[in-house]
Specification:
Blueprint: E1 2-7, E2 10-15, E3 19-23, E4 33-36, E5 39-44, E6 47-50, E7 59-69, E8 73-79, E9 84-90, E10 93-103
């Protein structure tokens, strides 16, 4: 059984037991459970249910494993012939979630 979920503007293809890294959930702590209600597609036993836009009565639950900083992202801006160059870097805050159940 697998599902496609949408969280914080990103889509993830998940199965039970998968670990995904998504944007930071600042209102949840490590060890808490989280429910994803925006399920776009569910496949179980060869039967596919596609939502329009979401599948009714479908829910994916997960457990927050940890919060961490991702890889550094560098942003470089330049305007040709104007002697303008600027480099900015940041590390996004991410949350690792383990999928515990898929309900359709």
């Amino acid at each position: 059984m697998l599902a496609v979920i949408r969280t914080k503007g990103h889509q993830h293809l998940v199965q039970k037991g998968d670990k995904i890294s998504t944007d930071f959930f600042n209102d949840k702590k490590e060890g808490e459970t989280i429910s994803f209600d925006e399920v776009l597609l569910v496949e179980q036993g060869g039967e596919v249910h596609i939502g329009q836009p979401i599948v009714a009565n479908a829910k994916v639950e997960g457990k927050i494993i940890k919060h961490f900083k991702g890889e550094k992202v560098k942003v470089f801006k330049m305007k040709p012939k104007k002697r303008y160059k600027k480099t900015i870097g940041f590390r996004p805050l991410l949350t690792e979630v383990e999928i515990t159940s898929i309900q359709a």
